[in-house]
Structure prediction request, 315 residues.
Amino acid sequence: MVDKAGSERHLPVMAVDVCEMLEPRPAGRYIDATLGDGGLTIAILDASAPGGEVLAVDWDDDALARSKKNLAAYLDRVSFARSSFERIRELLPGHGWGDGADGMILDLGVSTHQITEPGRGFSFQKDGPLDMRMDQRLTETAADLCNTRDEKTLANIIYRYGEERASRRIARTIVERRLREPLETTADLRRAVKDAGVFGRPGHDPATRTFQGLRIAVNDELGTLERFLEDGFKCLRPGGRMAVLSYHSLEDRLVKHAFRKWASDCICPPETPICGCSWRAKVNLIVRRPKRPSAEEVERNPRARSARLRGVQRI
Ligand SMILES: C[S@@+](CC[C@H](N)C(=O)[O-])C[C@H]1O[C@@H](n2cnc3c(N)ncnc32)[C@H](O)[C@@H]1O
Prediction:
């Protein structure tokens, strides 16, 4: 879908399933921790009409500006904040929601707008500065990583976060190339991957995994999620629900383990003979296995294909 300004709008993923999981109700308070273009916020506001409210959060200035326009018809029920979701709990008292929300959604990763806008540097299809910062206040870009990290660190980033088997070869080519001149554009990085002799899976650009790895590193996506998952259930009121949509196995594993811990009555190491922890379950799991998008949704919106949806309800 293309908006009035000619840029591609993000189609919300699994919106019906997210609403089934959160069960929005009139007068409920909901947090959209990853606002993007606002599609899931709209779904929640519609499902909680006439009185439900959403606190809409994103760390990307562009996303906030765009969704303020997309949400023009709902401005009496939505408020906006620029923040990383790992710090959302600090925002709640100032918002009058000190005791938490009735529901919260995290829709992880990047939006279609971020990916397709060449100026943001996420796109290997269109040339642009090698940036990849979702939050423009972050100090290091993908170009900075490519031009300053040693070969082993680059290889680890590309292997661990991009799950790219040719990571060492790619890192070596990047380092050789920057001795001649620094990498500055997405085309420079794409060329380095090509020069490393990487072919990629059929139907996928060979640079896909390398771009993913660097993007995750630039934005510290796993660290941010891990820190949120330490005690993110505290954003919820008793009975409040949380849904998380993730798009690759590294994220989903973190969510699965955190939700299991939150739902457990003991977190002692398995070899401990007698429970000595005072931990008690904070949540119930809403689903044991992640929900996946329907084949029909994937056909309509191919970006949904790797989505996994998990949810918990605070006790
Ligand atoms: C997949 S998009 C969300 C799309 C949105 N649900 C919609 O329907 O348009 C992910 C959004 O989360 C934001 N984001 C990613 N990590 C974040 C973080 N740690 N804190 C706040 N926002 C984050 C990105 O900037 C992006 O706008």
Q: What stands out?
A: The longest strand covers residues 236-246. Residues 167-180 form the longest helix (14 residues). Residues 15-113+222-314 form a domain with the Rossmann fold fold (CATH 3.40.50.150).
